[in-house]
Amino acid sequence: MTYEERLAAVERRLDELEAGHAASPAPSSGDFWVLDGLRPAAEGNEGVVLWAGTVRTADGPVDWQMGRMADELLHADDLDAVADRLAALGHPVRLALLLAVIRGTTKVTDLAEHLQLASTGQVYHHIKALSAGGWLRQATRGHVAVPPERVVPVLVAMGVTT
Prior knowledge:
Elements: H1 3-20, H2 33-42, E1 48-57, E2 60-69, H3 70-74, H4 79-87, H5 92-103, H6 108-114, H7 120-132, E3 137-140, E4 143-145, H8 148-159
Antiparallel strand pairs: 1-2, 3-4
């Protein structure tokens, strides 16, 4: 079975699980209801990793999910790109900036004031690093946005450290 076929099977199974458990995020069938659904898709492989979420943002709700075969992650070739993407998050001002944008502050001058920075130049320094890592993008002149496909991953990254 190819990687694409395995991933498609995981996504189909996840869709089935979500449809069956839409009313209750933690069904009474056990603490590991997501894992119980993923185990059959992972048979014969090193496993499956899944992250998903639904988040209300200033721009509206973001529903997002992604799954990867564990062997793809365990044997990743381009670790420099992964490290660069994670390093972009490795500064408290950058995390605060991302969270402020997710909550609705998108204007660079407002971000400088909100983050108590001395200048918009400091904000642009952090915006450049976050944009290079794919965590932020230019929305309109003087405004930035967190791409919807990055909202849940940044919260997951924060969640694994608490």
